[in-house]
């Protein structure tokens, strides 16, 4: 079962493919799995059991199967863009909307976790598969900033992927987009020079931009403006929501720059269904302890800070006042029970900037 459980990722993508292929209101079939996952995540307890997986090739097979299924999913969407959903009037709009909602959902869960797993590998094939899976959400070079910046600077002001206390998810997404763009530009400028970063055939900026533009141009050639706007909308919404997921992964946590990583430096989300559909990306602290460890070797740390029911937290984040009320008690506990004395000083400063109570005043 430790091998088979991750094929739930394949199953939800396959439902999306079937729904879009059938057309009509079936296009909502893939998106309907969100409600099932949300309910299970809300009632599921913590899954703190390490996985018993000893065959790396068998464990990685689900990652490459997912890559193939996502290509088929987008192929079905392109085909439907030409042939329509077999409905009339407003019904056709609902058909398009169902397909778009399905693809956005699957771009995030399970696609983001699998793309993240692939981009951390060291060889050419998985890295390119990871780039492909991030390209379909309009973020082809996500791995550059993540590996070269986030894993070094997380929980500090130098990390664009760490949400700051008092910062709304909307401000964070814009800052995160700017930061990840800056990271890849600086990285490629170091490799190829200021101009070469944009025109060298090996440049990640050029290759990534070409991949995204090629998808949009292909859609325009076969389905015109409507299909192109729909595809662009999927990319933009997926990119926005993908960055928003980062918001809850480190929100409000603090670390002295260049200090060692410790188990209290990330939020962990250990419900069994999210561990599976996130391909252990929510088994978060152990990933930061060893970024090269494959997903099935990550060990859950139940004594580390927990953020139960990540989907519920993620939805709350879009309502800043509700988010502040919900997250502040957790950060107060983090400040008092987990933070080092140096981190407590940073916390007092962060709370002051956010206009929050000074619960460390004593």
Description of the structure:
The structure is a single chain. With 362 residues, the chain is mostly helical. It has helices at residues 8-22, 29-43, 56-83, 90-108, 111-119, 124-135, 142-153, 169-199, 204-250, 272-277, 284-289, 310-316, 320-338, 341-354. The protein has one domain (4-253, 261-354). The chain is built from 14 helices and no strands. It is globular.
Estimated helix fraction: 55-70%
User: Overall mean pLDDT score?
Assistant: 95
Largest sheet, strands/sense/barrel: none
Number of helices: 14
Cα distance spanning the termini: 50 Å
Key words describing this protein structure:
362 residues, 14 helices, mainly alpha
Describe how the helices and strands are arranged.
Layout: H1 8-22, H2 29-43, H3 56-83, H4 90-108, H5 111-119, H6 124-135, H7 142-153, H8 169-199, H9 204-250, H10 272-277, H11 284-289, H12 310-316, H13 320-338, H14 341-354
Helix pairs in contact: 1-2, 1-3, 1-4, 2-4, 3-5, 4-9, 5-6, 7-8, 8-9
Short description:
It contains 14 helices and no strands. It has helices at residues 8-22, 29-43, 56-83, 90-108, 111-119, 124-135, 142-153, 169-199, 204-250, 272-277, 284-289, 310-316, 320-338, 341-354. The mean pLDDT is 95.
